[in-house]
Amino acid sequence: MATRDVTAGPPAELVEAHAPVALFDRVTLAFDEKVILRDVTFDVRFGHTKIFLGASGAGKSTILKLMLGLLKPDSGTIWVLGQRVDTMTEAQLMRVREHMGMVFQEGALFDSLTVGENVGFKLYEDSDLSLSEVRERVEEVLGFVSLAEHIDKLPSALSGGQRRRVAIARAMITRPKVLLYDEPTTGLDPMTCLSVDTEIVKLRDLQQVTSVLVTHQLRDAFYIASHEARRNGREVELVEASEQKVEEADFVMIREGRVAFEGSAWELRHSKDAYLQTFLS
């Protein structure tokens, strides 16, 4: 059976000019009597960052599962890369997922595979690339996250932060248009969190990857929203974001399954809403 070159960009029909990368329109989901999301509406713009905040159990991670088609809503519509995914079959969803990457909360690496094998897993399994071409691409993405020297190590030899960055490298191996992050810094110390946040910013600004981030870590959320990556010769530097870049980061507060707030970092910080003030404190 012929395999596909999953490092190629999405087919033209998947991306319409100026269309949202993702769109939720009045999405509701319940498990038995428990409502997880109710009438949730938002869109995600190309190259922008969407940051979902909220208490544990508010429904944040469920939004990512719906975007991937792992769950189906009870009502409402969901569009991703120009395709309505809430009505798709599993086979149809696979075609859209080829252009999305997911970074799980705990990294979810295969312990028995090397770092390089973990990162290149999808290309080894489902692409036309030769072994040497896959190795070259793996070296490229590991270099991007400053882990090239660890390519032949097992994940157990790495620190928690390094394993999380390997997970990011694995998610970017197919050059996705959209990266979904589910609590990517949970359980990490502040300095390690900063290294993960830096990779998220670099991918967004240097690789033009649209970012959808679920987190309860306000420090990480505001850092990603307020910084941008720029090339300075061969070096990459992180600087305070321009006003335009800051405006491209949208915060969404999910409270009891509903959108309680949507706006910029400045608007979130200056909101007079008592719940938001308590959450931010």
Quick synopsis:
The strands form three sheets. The chain has a six-stranded mixed β-sheet, sandwiched between helices. It has a four-stranded antiparallel β-sheet with strand order 2-1-4-5, covered by helices on one side. The chain contains eleven helices and twelve strands.
Key structural traits:
single chain, Rossmann fold, 6-stranded mixed sheet, 4-stranded antiparallel sheet, 11 helices
Describe the structure in your own words.
The chain has 281 residues and is an alpha/beta fold. The strands form three sheets. The protein has a six-stranded mixed beta sheet, with helices on both faces. The chain has a four-stranded antiparallel beta sheet with strand order 2-1-4-5, covered by helices on one side. Strands 9-10 form a two-stranded antiparallel ribbon. Mean pLDDT is 89; it is low at 1-13. It has a single domain, classed as P-loop containing nucleotide triphosphate hydrolases (Rossmann fold), CATH 3.40.50.300. α5 (131-144) crosses α6 (160-172) and α6 runs parallel beside α7 (190-206). It is globular. Helix content is 35%, strand content 26%. β1 (22-31) and β2 (34-44) form a beta hairpin.
